[in-house]
Design a protein that fits this description.
Length: 429
Amino acid sequence: MDESKWRIETKAVQSGYTPENGGPRVVPIAQSTTYKYNDVQSVADLFDLKRAGFFYTRLANPTVDCFERKIAALEGGVAAVATSSGQNANAFSILNIAQCGDHIVSTATLYGGTVSLFSNTLKKMGITFTFISPEASEEEIQAAIQDNTKAIFSEMLANPALTVLDIEKFAKVAHKNGLPLIVDNTFPTPFICRPFEWGADIVTHSTTKYIDGHATSVGGMIVEKGGFPWDNGKFPGLVEPDESYHGLIYFKNFQPAPYSAKMRAQWIRDMGSPMMPFNAFMSMVGCETLHLRMERHSSNALALAKHLEKHPMVKWVTYPGLESSPDYALAQKYLNGMCSGVLCFGVKGGVKAGEIAMNSLKIAAIAVHVADLRTCVLHPASMTHRQLSEEELIAAGVSPDLIRVSVGLENINDIIEDFDQALEKAKNC
Ligand SMILES: *Cc1c(COP(=O)(O)O)cnc(C)c1O
């Protein structure tokens, strides 16, 4: 059976690495910076990108290569490039096609680190952003696009606002304007949603989260769907000769994955932020149970959301899997009936009562992390989103009392009992 036809569970377990006869069953860790060759010409050809192969781990490594192939297979893309972190993946996904003087349209409901990256760091490099609501109409999205716009960026399931992207709407406007739609698919993972099937052109990941799933390794991934018309006049970097490679033209010489070739040859090579082989190994092994974990994360989160929604100490709950959620219909359409493991809620009694409840949890830990197998809680306004202005907080969907829960894989009754006892302690404040 053709591997591209495998169902997603089979791809999670087997794609990316095929052992040779008598070879190790599990992907080996190539903990080596360098690779040995018998003659000078072989290495010269590698440097000229005439031949695929490994010569230095800053550019490519056999273990990282297997992990890239697994994620490309899961997302249904033509290629993937691993990066040192999710932040790095999002930064490079933009820098690969935009430079000083260019402009990006992005939804405002984003991870705090991405807001800082866009509205401070990339802005200082001369790339400007217009932030719009994920609920913007086609006309409103169109109105945000300028002559120098190079992409539309969004998160599929926003961290921590938990808004679900109406991806078909955004893809339609993007393509009408000759722009790629870049989607950060960290929270759904390719098991729950494959944005390429709905019109995205580039997918990014913080593999640090569910893909690794065990909170062991920071990493990122940029995946290319393939087939985007980069020769439409807006992307000179892909169609003009790259003098640093003797005039190679990515769009001509590197089909079907010109965006990925440019990413590796320029950004990974020059900025020097590859994924390390040991991290790729840990993340790849973690990813092999992605399908099982995402089902349980989703069912545990739905059960806790339903419980908290009825709890007398709870003021509000956000989880797109709840029928009361304004995103319920989008979640049913795009997320395959599962909504991942993250929910948000506010405690009656506000920030102070919320803090007491958080401090009283025993199974759920206070941790600056999300999306791994151990339940954890975080207060974005004082932690991950602390650098944001009040306006940015509201735009990002972060209210002062918002507690984000990353529901893990412990027994759901134990998780519920833990929240019940903690909320009891917050009762009299
Ligand atoms: C965590 C996260 C990132 C940043 O990833 P790191 O691996 O921490 O650099 C980007 N996007 C989303 C949605 C995230 O949750």
